Amino acid sequence: MKRGGFCNYSANLKKTDIEPLVIGVIKQIMNDERFVEGVKSSIGIHVDADKIVEEIKNYEAKLKEVQLNKNRLETELDTLPIDAKYRDRKIKDMTVRIDSMYDVIAEIEEKIDDARYRKQVIEEKSLTFENIFQILVHFSKIYDKINDEDRKELLAELIKEIHIYPEGENEYPLKSIKFAFPILLDGKEINEIFLNKSPSVETLVCLKRK
Asked: Residue 48 and residue 36: Cα distance in Å, rounded?
């Protein structure tokens, strides 16, 4: 795997011995509706860009307001009569106000750019999470049809770390799997499952928060 990792790896335990166990776990947990809903719920949280869209709209409305006020003041400055009372003082005052408005405009534009960037990141992450979810849902069909190299790539996309027991400590060597995506369960985000003696849903003895 490129991104996944094996911890406490025994010299007598090959990666080919572990991978079938990992595959078995993934296939089992995808039959657990609670787990599936946990992944789906987490996707919804991480890809919700509605608040940022509203934030951008508010910034744009404020920007438009400041620009209108600036344009109005500039027009007033340009059309100020030569014989206007306190003309020089008014010009100075309006110039200061216009300069201040330019500062505000630059600040708002920077906030808009930042919000748009955050929105883009969320949208890109949305594709990633959605892809992961679709892979998990159809994992059995996908995994059984692809070649060994693609299987390694697939597991690297789904799994961040794999921990195993020291040799001889447990008859079932797989200790835990840390996924490369969050899972929302009972209002908390977790990304690691711990196992006992066999790769079945009933053996998930602990769920660890991110």
From this structure: 19
pLDDT, tens only, 85-103? 999 999 999 999 999 999 9
For 47-54, the CB contacts below 8 A with 24+ separation are: 47/122, 47/123, 47/125, 47/126, 47/129, 47/130, 48/122, 49/119, 49/122, 49/123, 49/126, 52/115, 52/118, 52/119, 52/122, 53/119
Q: 199 burial class (0-12, 13-18, 19+ CB within 10 angstroms)? A: buried
Residue pair 210/45 in contact by the 8 Å Cβ criterion: no
Write the pLDDT tens digit of every residue in 41-82: 766 555 567 788 999 999 999 999 999 999 999 999 999 999
Between CA 131 and CA 18 the distance in angstroms is 25
**Cα separations in angstroms, 140 against 29, 97, 124, 146, 160:** 11, 66, 26, 11, 20
